[in-house]
Design a protein that fits this description.
By secondary structure, the chain is α+β, with helices and mostly antiparallel strands. The protein is built from ten helices and twelve strands. Strand 2 and strand 3 form a beta hairpin.
Length: 328
């Protein structure tokens, strides 16, 4: 009898510890949790990721493929309680940083995860370095936990494929092919120069293209920071020489343009000065003509003859010799 009572008490103690005390749990501030009941995640009605704004970045042919159910997310706090047939999956939603060349499935790839290789449109194999920031998406924890086997590997592979496609087709923004062909100071066939000058546009393009990562893999790419684009060492010196020549030509053209602009400004100024001198000489004559016209209207022919006589007298005083016409 004592053995039976002991078994009963032991079983009761096991049930108390296993079902009651071990059923309490907490969620940290940088964590979110999802609870499953008999292996099925608790869902929010019939809502899916297609009902959330994160699905707006998906193409039409991707919407059916990446249709995940929305699950009930347990926020930070506690203690919470779960039954033995329930299981809690905790996910860190803190922002993480990784080298853009990091391969989760092969850590020694891409020069031990330090440099990512890509080919430019002029067939130049170049090395890219930088970082990306990402975090688990609270709006699509189902894809992060259950929909994708290794979400980090998927999102890194997607980022690398988009980046390599962009590098292979990159052209400087705001400049058509016709403008590039007619530009005397452009360096043709060297797209790495355009890439280096437009790192900001490249980063913004990557951020825009990777907005669908939340709906795809349950990971939100916070930012991409491409900091270095370096060609192979064997062509670095040749590229530096080309860039030096390009800079010299650009400098010479700038100096010639500045000199020509200065000459044009000086010529315009000289024309203005001569024009003002001519106007200054003509203005007294215009005023004299106006006064003579007013004198003729008011005094008549006699007044004009008197004025002419007085003017001639002043000239006679200044003249050394006078030649007059003798009328018959």
């Amino acid at each position: 009898m004592d053995i039976v009572i002991g078994i009963i008490l032991g079983f009761a103690a096991w049930v108390l510890v296993r079902c009651v005390l071990a059923g309490f749990y907490t969620v940290d501030q940088n964590q979110r949790a999802v609870k499953t009941v008999f292996g099925r995640a608790q869902r929010v009605g019939n809502l899916t990721t297609l009902n959330d704004p994160i699905a707006e970045a998906l193409r039409d042919d991707e919407r059916e493929r990446y249709c995940f159910p929305q699950v009930r997310v347990i926020g930070p706090g506690g203690p919470y309680f779960k039954w033995p047939w329930e299981k809690v999956y905790k996910v860190s939603v803190a922002t993480e940083t990784a080298n853009m060349a990091f391969d989760p499935q092969s850590p020694h790839a891409n020069q031990d995860g330090t440099v990512l290789e890509a080919v430019t449109k002029d067939q130049l194999n170049t090395g890219l370095s930088g970082q990306i920031r990402f975090q688990a998406s609270e709006k699509n924890l189902y894809a992060y936990l259950f929909g994708v086997t290794n979400p980090i590997a998927h999102v890194m592979g997607y980022f690398v494929s988009v980046l390599r496609e962009r590098i292979a087709t990159f052209e400087a923004p705001g400049k058509s092919e016709a403008d590039a062909a007619s530009d005397a100071v452009s360096v043709e066939g060297i797209s790495i120069n355009d890439l280096r000058k437009n790192l900001r546009d490249l980063n913004e393009h990557m951020d825009q293209e990777c907005q669908c990562s939340q709906a795809r893999y349950g990971i939100r790419l916070d930012a991409s920071l491409i900091t270095g684009i370096d060609p192979p060492s064997e062509v670095e010196s040749a590229l530096a020489a080309i860039n030096t020549a390009h800079n010299q030509v650009s400098s010479d053209i700038s100096l010639a343009t500045a000199a020509a602009d200065q000459r044009i400004v000086e010529s315009r100024r000289a024309v203005e000065i001569e024009t003002l001198k001519a106007e200054a000489e003509v203005e007294p004559l215009r005023r004299l003509a106006a006064e003579l016209g007013e004198l003729k209207r008011n005094g008549g022919e006699a007044a004009m003859n008197a004025y002419l006589r007085n003017a001639k007298l002043a000239l006679y005083v200044q003249a050394n010799r006078v030649i007059t016409e003798v009328r018959p």
